[in-house]
What does this fold into?
Amino acid sequence: MIKMIFVLLTSVVLKPINDYLAARGSVKDEEPLFISLRHRATGDRLTIRTISYFVKTLLRSIGLNTPRLSAHSCRHTCITMALNAGATLQEVQAMARHKSITTTQIYAHNIDRIANSAERKLDNYLVL
It folds into this structure.
């Protein structure tokens, strides 16, 4: 049995993908969306390792060269931003494909910790 996984593509995301497909040329439905151009893997799907390498290279190119930033940390940022934008825990759980809502709740607790931090309260106190 094939497990179907989908990603909702908003218009903001769909435009660059359509631009890419126009530049790439005709693609059959069964072909991967993003393909490798390595000589031994030309036409194969990109691997997780390759995508992580691309993300790390792009982060470095904009001056963000730290081991703490990675493709996975971008995932964390996306999840946190979705919660900050008003998405429910259940919506974010589905987006992130977390099996347990408990995993998603960790992000909500981190948001609460940042918003209600002792450091912010101290800043407010010192400004008085």
About this structure: The chain has a mean pLDDT of 88. The CA atoms of residues 101 and 112 lie 17 Å apart. Residues 69-128 form one domain. Helices lie at 11-24, 48-61, 71-84, 89-96, 101-115, 118-127.
